[in-house]
Amino acid sequence: MSGRTSAQRGLRGTVYRRGAKWAFMIELAPDPLTGKRRQRAKSGFESEGEAWEALAEANGELRTNTFVASSTRTVAEFFEEWLVNAAMTLKPTSLANYTAFTRAYVVPVIGSRRLQSVEPATLTAFYQHLLTSGRRKRDTDSEMYALWSRSPEDARMGAAEIARRTGVSYSAASNAVRRYRNGKVPLPVDPGLSARTVTSIHVMLRRAFADAVELRYLSTNPATRVRPPRIDRRGHVTWTPQELGRFLAAARSDRFSALWVLLATTGMRRSEAVGAVRSAFDPVAGTLTVVSTRVVVSGRARRSDGKSRRSRRLLGLDPTTVQVLREHLAEQDRERAAFGASYHDEDLMFCWPDGRPLHPGAVSVRFQRIVREAGVPRIRLHDVRHTYATMALRAGVNPKIVSTRLGHATVAFTLDTYTADIPELDQAAAVTISNLFLPPQEPRPTTMFTDPLTEQPPS
């Protein structure tokens, strides 16, 4: 073309011949960090007209603020940058999980790809790979069992040697040997990841790629057009009220008996109970405010401000729980006085005699020991929370109240989570609704059949 048309004169950028092909170039705003000049160029067009059309499209993207400069940035490079920036907004547990996902799964599989080459089909194939063969964690249980089972029966390998050879802790090896002696053989480990783990990775990718769109690294978020694998929701394992009572009876002599009562009567999370502070407890009003938590990040316990905004909440306590907490704190005051200046005062409601904080993992281990002593079905500590929720809903407590006390984001989440565990609620609802308009059922009279010839009841 000898000159620009009127439409072309309104475009930002230039079109020029590059060898046998055509190209365009646009001058972009300077780099916000360095102030250096930035350009966007693209070549390989067969004709000058095609180059002008591409330039017009790029101008449209600039006007709508959707323009993305071409980049060779890889997925691995982006996630290295993203994790640093995300650390400013993510909670420590989420950051630790996302860092582990990135290093174990994202970078080894798709890290070398150009970020801008990631398509929905890329992620679909990635998820399928994770589901079928993505597991990277060692199956240490099978390794330990192989060492133990291959040793002579009259001289089985001990926990210390198993721990040394496999690199696990002595505690883990000791528990494993106890299981093997009781006939519990480890089951084969699926080479793929669970659907729940892959879904968690999908959630991370969707968030990361959304940030990439905001940074103009990507024009669209490929994760929003991919469906994560379906999670088969199983019913929660819970105790009956009688089993919970047996557990609490067995826990009366435990140092943290008040902790077990608090978990049972409020449904608090482990992190919330372990992180509970004395200053948030009002024995007169009978309330406890959840203001902080104690979570495990990379094996170490640390204080956090809760799982979500809804996690911070005021919990009403029953008189028995209030009295149990009063007695527990009175004993704690005596311990503080005995330790004097060497007492580690962090205002914690539950701690060791010298005030040092509890490790959440140690609380779970202690819980399982009392479960064995009580002779009740084995459940996880978190299942006490599920037990509380199902008992409350069965007792007819308003779902909104149950949801608020549990610190859930919505009532819908509470009902979706627990309704399947309580099928009798559905049956009760059917009866209640039908009674509004259907007459009560009366017993039907028994029909007496007669002989068709004699019209008499059959003999």
Describe this structure in words.
- GO terms for molecular function: DNA binding.
- It comes from Pseudonocardia oroxyli.
- This is Site-specific recombinase XerD.
- Keywords: DNA integration, DNA recombination, DNA-binding.
- InterPro entries: AP2-like_int_N, DNA_brk_join_enz, Integrase-like_cat_sf, Integrase_catalytic, Integrase_recombinase_N, Integrase_SAM-like_N, Tyrosine_recombinase_XerCD.
- This protein is mainly alpha-helical and 459 residues long.
- Among the domains are: 6-63, no CATH class; 75-135 and 193-225, Tyrosine recombinase, N-terminal domain (DNA polymerase, domain 1, Orthogonal Bundle); 140-181, no CATH class; 245-261 and 270-372, hpI Integrase, Chain A (Orthogonal Bundle).
- 47% of the residues lie in helices and 9% in strands.
- The chain has 18 helices and eight strands.
- It has helices at residues 6-9, 48-63, 75-86, 92-110, 120-133, 140-150, 159-166, 170-181, 195-214, 241-250, 257-266, 270-274, 319-339, 360-374, 382-394, 399-406, 411-418, 423-434, and strands at 14-18, 21-28, 38-45, 281-282, 287-290, 293-297, 300-304, 313-316.
- It has a three-stranded antiparallel sheet, with helices on one face. The chain has a three-stranded antiparallel sheet with strand order 4-5-8, with no helix packed on it.
- The radius of gyration is 32 Å and the shape is extended.
- The N and C termini lie far apart (112 Å).
- 23% of the residues are buried.
- The mean pLDDT is 89.
